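Might you be able to review the protein record set out just below?
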Amino acid sequence: MADITDLWPESFAALGLIKRGNPLLIPMYAYEKRMYKKADAIVFSMEGGRDYIMDKRWDRSHGGPVDLNKVYHIGNGVDLEKFRKDLLESDYSDCDLENEDLFKVVYTGSIRTANRVGELVNVAKALKEKKADNIKILIWGEGDRRDRISRDIDSEGLTNIVIKGGVPKTAIPGILSGSDLNIYLLADSPLYRYGHSLNKSFEYLASCRPILAGSASAYSVVDRYQCGVCLSKFSPEEMADEIIRFSEMPKEEYDKYCESASKAAENFDFKILTKKLINIISRQDVEHKDKDRLNILAIGYNDYRFSGRIRAMIRLADRLGDAVSVLHTGEDGAVKANGRYYHTREGNMGFLSFVSLAKRTAKALPGIDILMVFDRRSSVPGYRIAKKYLPKFIVQDMAELYDIRKVKNFTGKAGCFFEHRMLKKADIVICANEARRDYMERHYDYGCKYLIYENSGWLEYSDEVDFAAMERRFHPMLDNEKVKIVSTAGTSLERGTDRLVGCMPALRDTAALYLVGGGTDRDNDTVIGLIEELGVSDAVHVIGRLGQNELKYFLSRCDIGAVIYSKDDLNNIYCSSGKLYEYAYEGLPIAATDNEPLARLCTEKGIGASGPDLEDSIRTVISDYEYYKKNVLSFREEFSRQHLIEELGLKILDEMKR
């Protein structure tokens, strides 16, 4: 098991201690990669460990050796029992802490450059200029910057900030609990896009006081639990304003922050985290036993590069056992790597070649414990392999849901035919949401077990991201005070883009709409004509297709995500929207049509509004935006492909044992 509390050697490069082109980094990164490959489990203290591995392209979906399903997160946490014991037994006293006329802002920890404690001098100056005479910043700690900061305080003649020095660890609970607001800052570093796990932040939570973070980071506990405020970018004036706001905050609002901090601390208690670690260790024991005896053949025709669901199913196959995957892709030069056979030919003859490759691969295997079929076209070779090679167990993923009687083209009907034949042979069928599972159980009672895997994907930045270029490109169109609504359906009329554009005459004063994605020439002409006809060219922007980096960046700059589906076939009626999860992961509340799965998620999770009147749904979200935003941030933390794949894998193994 690998326990990762710091990203080494990435930290050296990110902080400029070693230039990225330095050849010394090559063996360091190679050692790190090898360690991740060899480990049975990788536990990161920062929550974005999986993102880091994917950014390095070391994960299997990028052709690397690291299985993301063995990556876990356990933060540093706090020993609540000891914290509370020290709080009760501490005899530490301080005149400033005991002064009830002061609003006390407390920092505890080392006084080093990385913690930016010196910036608090500028915050104190801003507070003085704003005549906030009842506020005082209190600093406990030692470090190589202490003397310099003390001289700065004296030279500025500041009396509203003081360095108290070092204290025994047992005194910290009493100090933090005597504060009114606990504070920390982070160095400007790209590392924080993977989150952080500062020991002090968990002690702050245990004190049941609000937290003010001087800079933002990904996976922020403060944002997730609504136990304080994270500044998007540090400035002394903005931090001073937030401190003043907390000092003048109504007691009811202030107490909510305190309660949220207390609840968050319970989730990071050492006892809870220890149980998580024990579960990880226990899970490895079970998986080693299962993995030794399971040979898996997985088949997927949809291009895995553009299908988050296919990539998730590949990880599931890898998690269940020794998997060999036959996959179709349009990527040039892809042939074979890491147990995967890549097929690249297109067209009807190309599909026949894909079927032949799948059959040859099955023939070469010593036996098939589990056959996994990922989509309708894969059902063609899957059905033939199931008949000829008699796998012990068959898992079929129903990524789509179509009624063969309503499919008009021959290719679609053929796909439905083989998918239905495959369905009769399957032991487990994976449905894309609860509504589809219920429909399948009602109409296809073939004795198989129906499980659920939602299309809960999200966007990821690649290794090479030019944020400055994206800012230059998108800032002019996003630089306005309007509510920014985004739809990634492009100009597709099938996805209801005309309905969305039709809402804009009534919303143009408060909202702007951005259409991201493609469409047919007819779709483009129709939508652009409609925009001109309605006179909303200033409020509707057709962006076109974006690459993954650009799309992730663009979504993160918007406010509301629009999800629209028709009700003209089963696949739309019981829609499984991947874009909903992409929006949620970027923190966007949802405005959606009233299809059952969308309505259920919006209602149960409170992440948006759903209804037959799309304009009304948008207005509902705008009118109570902070409520929906808070719920989306909480929902974002609930879903994780790692967690869902783990549970799905364990359920499949349980069914096999039966």
Notes: The radius of gyration is 28 Å. Residues 80-268 form a domain with the Rossmann fold fold (CATH 3.40.50.2000). The chain has four domains: 2-73, 80-268, 293-456, 467-639.
